[in-house]
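Researcher: Quick test of sequence recovery. Tokens follow.
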């Protein structure tokens, strides 16, 4: 017990040291921007009182709510309830609308359900970092499948939703038929990789910065949430098809009316740095897996895709050379084509 406490103490010392180092660099950068662009522009926030029309577009599906043990989750469902379930799980600073291209595409053969994970969109936002540990989000998925009237599903996840997908498929293989993951390595693979690859360590700076209280929220909110413009539409995003639009970014900004509303989503990262998932969530996935990887990912090295093969018995990788981290929105036609081909092959 004493050795474990010492190891945890050293772990916390290291990650908090990195957090304060990135905080210092960020504060310096913000100071430069305040001087060069002016405080008025940097502190400006546009008022968004009217819900974006895209959120109520009936062609995406029907809105509903599920009352789980700990939270109330909002979802959008497209397709007949008598069809097999396809469950879509989004990532950090996103919501159900991230899967707009998949909701329409697969409703011919599936009941496609895109959720707002806990802390996001119109779902409950429990307070406290521990409420966003991976194990709680895995538990949510288990309850969602049952609450929708199913015993299993095709599970699709992106970013942190991908981490949830990997963990769920490993823990509950009988509740998934197939899984598709977009630009998200297995969590334990990422943890091992970042320790041994300097390029990935540099790309992961925001993990440590996000560990700090309130400062990340303030930083993201500067210049009318300019951070969101940069990651979704800016040069770092690598977006080129036009499928990622300003309409989408404005919709994301709407779900964050103030900086405190971002805290639950950022808590995904805080919770799992401070309370890493146990080995139970590192189990090798037995069901067929399709990993779709946009090669211009600003936050993840391409080498992670190949390394993730160690965590699946039967996995295929489809690389999309010019797509960004948000590959399912950046190249929806290619992504949907790969998913449909994968599902067709496995059902024969």
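Model:
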């Amino acid at each position: 017990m004493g050795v474990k406490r010492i190891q945890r103490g050293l772990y916390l010392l290291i990650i908090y040291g990195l957090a304060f180092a990135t905080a210092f660099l960020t504060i310096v950068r913000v100071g430069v921007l305040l001087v060069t662009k002016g405080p008025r522009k940097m502190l400006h926030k546009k008022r968004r009182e009217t819900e974006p029309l895209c959120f109520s577009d009936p062609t995406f599906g029907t809105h509903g709510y599920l009352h789980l043990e700990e939270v109330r989750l909002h979802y959008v469902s497209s397709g007949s309830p008598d069809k097999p379930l396809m469950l879509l799980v989004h990532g950090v600073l996103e919501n159900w609308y991230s899967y707009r291209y998949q909701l329409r595409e697969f409703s011919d053969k599936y009941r496609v359900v895109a959720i707002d994970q806990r802390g996001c969109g119109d779902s409950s936002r429990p307070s406290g970092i521990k409420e966003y540990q991976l194990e709680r989000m895995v538990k949510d998925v288990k309850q969602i499948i049952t609450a929708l009237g199913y015993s299993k599903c095709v599970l699709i996840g992106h970013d942190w939703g991908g981490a949830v997908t990997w963990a769920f498929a490993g823990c509950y293989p009988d509740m998934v038929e197939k899984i598709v993951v977009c630009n998200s390595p297995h969590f334990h693979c990422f943890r091992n990789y970042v320790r041994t690859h300097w390029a990935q360590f540099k790309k992961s700076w925001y993990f440590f910065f996000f560990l700090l209280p309130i400062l990340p929220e303030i930083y993201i909110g500067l210049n009318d949430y300019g951070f969101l413009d940069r990651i979704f539409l800016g040069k770092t995003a690598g977006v080129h098809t036009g499928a990622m639009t300003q309409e989408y970014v404005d919709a994301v900004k709407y779900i964050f009316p103030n900086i405190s509303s971002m805290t639950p989503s950022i808590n995904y990262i805080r919770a799992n740095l401070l309370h890493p998932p146990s080995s139970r969530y590192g189990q090798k996935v037995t069901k067929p897996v399709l990993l779709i990887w946009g090669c211009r990912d600003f936050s993840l090295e391409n080498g992670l895709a190949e390394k993730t093969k160690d965590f699946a018995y039967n996995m295929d990788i489809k690389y999309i050379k010019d797509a960004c981290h948000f590959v399912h929105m950046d190249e929806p036609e290619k992504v949907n084509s790969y998913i449909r081909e994968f599902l067709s092959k496995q059902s024969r």
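The two ends are 51 Å apart (CA to CA).
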